[in-house]
Amino acid sequence: MATHIVQCSRCGTQLDLSAFAIGQTVACPCGHQFAVPPPAVGTAQPAQPPPPPGQPWQRPPQGPSPRIPPVSPPMPYVAQRRRPCREANHALTYAIISIFCLQIILGPVAIVKANEAQRKMAADPSLDGSGKATAAKIIGIITTILVWCV
């Protein structure tokens, strides 16, 4: 890592700083604080040797860090209580019965009840049973078509 040697203007102490300190405010051991000027043109500094084994690496002094606003904690997720949709259950019951008997009557009734259930579930997100309503609608359509084709 490239180093930059700077002399304190108050006490004359030479400070061996990292190149990252250029433009930053540093403090001399005498207590004087000053900005590190850029190196003069043509004065290359040798790289700083790594610290001896057993000694921790010391981060070069840096200027004040920008204020980072505190992060607000995430809002806890509150699960809504889901209620079964009675119309979806009724529609599926009518659709299953229409497979075995009264297809001409119960097939269309299942389709109407399934549509009603889907409208209620779209209006109230706490209602559960969209799969049942979809299944009832499909079964009702199939049984109604089969009645008219046979």
Commentary on this structure:
The protein is α+β, with helices and mostly antiparallel strands. The chain has two domains: 1-49, no CATH class; 83-149. The protein is built from three helices and six strands; from the N terminus they run βββββααβα. It has helices at residues 86-100, 103-123, 130-149, and strands spanning 3-7, 14-18, 25-27, 33-35, 83-84, 127-128. The strands form three sheets. It has a two-stranded antiparallel sheet with strand order 1-2. A two-stranded antiparallel ribbon has the order 3-4. A two-stranded parallel sheet has the order 5-6. A hairpin with a 5-residue loop joins β3 and β4 (33-35). α1 packs antiparallel against α2 and α2 (103-123) packs antiparallel against α3. The N and C termini lie far apart (88 Å). The mean pLDDT is 78.
Structural class: alpha+beta
Oligomer: single chain
Shape: rod-shaped
The helix-strand sequence is EEEEEHHEH
Quick summary:
With 150 residues, the protein is α+β, with helices and mostly antiparallel strands. The chain contains three helices and six strands. It has helices spanning 86-100, 103-123, 130-149, and strands spanning 3-7, 14-18, 25-27, 33-35, 83-84, 127-128.
Secondary structure topology:
Layout lengths: L2 E5 L6 E5 L6 E3 L5 E3 L47 E2 L1 H15 L2 H21 L3 E2 L1 H20 L1
Parallel strand pairs: 5-6
Antiparallel strand pairs: 1-2, 3-4
Helix pairs in contact: 1-2, 1-3, 2-3
